[in-house]
UniProtKB/TrEMBL annotation:
Gene3D superfamilies: 3.40.1350.10. Belongs to the UPF0102 family. HAMAP family: UPF0102 (MF_00048). This is UPF0102 protein RG540_CH45100. GO terms for molecular function: nucleic acid binding. InterPro entries: Restrct_endonuc-II-like, tRNA_endonuc-like_dom_sf, UPF0102_YraN-like.
Amino acid sequence: MAAGRNDNGLNRRKAARQRAYKRGHLSEYLAALYLFVKGYRILAIRYRTKIGEIDLIARKGDLVIFVEVKARRGESEAIDAVGYTTQNRIRAASALWLSKRKHVATLSQRYDIIAVLPGRLPRHFPDAF
C-alpha cells in the first residue's frame, strides 16, 4: 500500500514537471512574439549548447540581445529567479554563439529578462544583468 502512495506522488511530480515544461515553452514563444511586435528580429529560440541554453536571441539594428524568459506570478519573482549562476551560464553560451557568427560578433550586446505574468502582457527588463 505504501508503494501505491509513493507511485501517485511520483506521478503527480512528473505531471507537474511536464506542465512547467510546457508553460516554459509557451512563455518563450509569447516573449518572442512580444519582441517581434516591438521590432526585434528573432534569431534563435532555445539555443542549446553544452554550456547551457539561451531562451531567446534577438536583434534590433546593431544590437543583439540574449534573453532569459521567466514565467512567474510577479515581476520581482521573475527577476530574482535569474541568479548569478544563470547569468554566467547565459554569458558563456552567448560567447559561444557569437564566436560562431563573426558577422554579428562586432555588434553591441545586451542581456535582458522577460517576465511572463499571468493575465498580463510580458514585461521586458532591458539590460537586466
